[in-house]
Amino acid sequence: MISLFAKALFTGETPLIYGDGKQSRDFTYVENVVEANRLALRAKGLRGQAVNVAMGHRVTLNELLAAMAKILGLRAKAEHRPPRAGDVRHSLADIRAARKLLGYRPVVDFETGLRRTMDWYRSLYR
Fold first, then answer.
1. How many domains would you assign to the chain?
2. What is the span of the domain harbouring residue 25?
């Protein structure tokens, strides 16, 4: 969604949301994934354990779009279409295993990561 919203915002298009926009996701910045991998390389006794790497925090699509628009100093209103069959309504990663096994904590919060992401997109669309 971030890439689709960014393209729409930078090109003056209307962002598109399937459903009411209250569906949520656990967005994380790439630096958090890098940190988890760095910690996994140094962790002792790990063998095949799977862990979720994320923020452990939900953001609705409406909140995401509003935050992106705010970073750009815009007001954005999405075009809503009917929900797509099979779409997951809410997604939230359980990061307890990553905390316990790796000592993982997100190093970049949602707002900072989104700001950095929008700066990167800004460089693409200028």
1. 1
2. 2-125
